[in-house]
Amino acid sequence: MDCTETRNHLLDSQRGTLTGELRARVDSHLAECDACRQEDAVERELSAVLQDRLPRPRAPEALRRSIEKRLMGEPPRASGGIRRTRRVSFFASAAFAAAAAFAILLWKPHGSDPMLAEAVNDHLRVLYSDHPVEIESGGIHQVKPWFTGRLDFAPVVAFGGDDDFPMQGGAVAYFLDRKAATFIFKRRLHVITLFVFRAEGLPWSALATHPVGGASGTLETSRGFHVLMWRKDDLGYALVSDVDPRDLQMLAVKVEGGV
Residue 11: how many CB atoms within 10 A of its CB? Predict the structure, then answer.
């Protein structure tokens, strides 16, 4: 297993979702490759920052009470207005605690968008990585063919960089549950990440009114980063950066084949 293939499996390895044989191959490569071990350490640290150290919204108290009532039921009242005490077995208590914790874990504030959160998280991984580029840019005709055999689709990108948006290179990443082609551009001192992925089965917003070439998308901001996301044919696109949103719009037009 080479470095590229190993790094494609790092997140799955950390999540414990690799099969026995594949996990053994990844572990074997990591034992022999200092660069990939360092990349694995960076991924683990970034995951800890994103998942453990960022503030998590607390579920409303009303939701907690509602969960408890549904799982346990209201204790019946005895005559004279005195509540009877009901014993709960150890297993029932454990089941309640697990179910309540799971329900609270799944709760999200109104308006949260998993695709927006994923785009920002993936962009942060690029920023934190010591090796964000797996193929150095020699133009789009060098970068695009590199993805052949590494993805289950062909990324359609018409722009290979220019003086305003020089392309740094590309890499394979994951976007939610699927592989994505990652193209990295610069805008002065800012990094712009373009993710291209299969569009089907994702929770696309119905409010895609922002024009992007011949398509329409959404432009949103999360944690100080702007995300321009759109869908065209079978592919989805996400541009992420802290540059001015107008710069993202300019780059999106170029990606779509505009001037």
Answer: 17
- Which among 216, 219, 131 is positioned nearest to 182, based on CA atoms? 131
Residues pairing with 195 in the sheet? 182, 238
Can you give the C-alpha Rg of the chain in angstroms? 23
CA distance readout (Å), 214 to 111, 156, 256, 257: 27, 14, 8, 10
Q: Give me the helices (H) in the chain, please.
A: 3-8, 10-15, 20-32, 34-48, 61-72, 90-106, 114-128, 140-146, 245-255
Domains parsed from the chain with CATH numbers = 3-53 (no CATH), 61-106 (no CATH), 114-255 (3.30.200.100)
Instruction: Give the pair of three-digit tokens for residue 146.
Output: 């590199």
The residue among 217, 225, 120 whose CA lies nearest residue 175 is 120
d(CA 126, CA 133): 9
Residue 11, amino acid: L
Whether 155 contacts 147, CB under 8 Å: yes
The reported pTM is: 0.60
Report which of 72, 176, 172 is spatially closest to residue 126, judged by C-alpha positions. Answer: 172
Q: How far apart are CA 131 and CA 171, in angstroms?
A: 9
Task: Please write the tens of the pLDDT for every residue from 156-182.
Answer: 998 989 999 999 999 999 998 899 999
Which contiguous run of DSSP H or E holds residue 172?
A: strand 167-175
Average pLDDT, the chain: 79
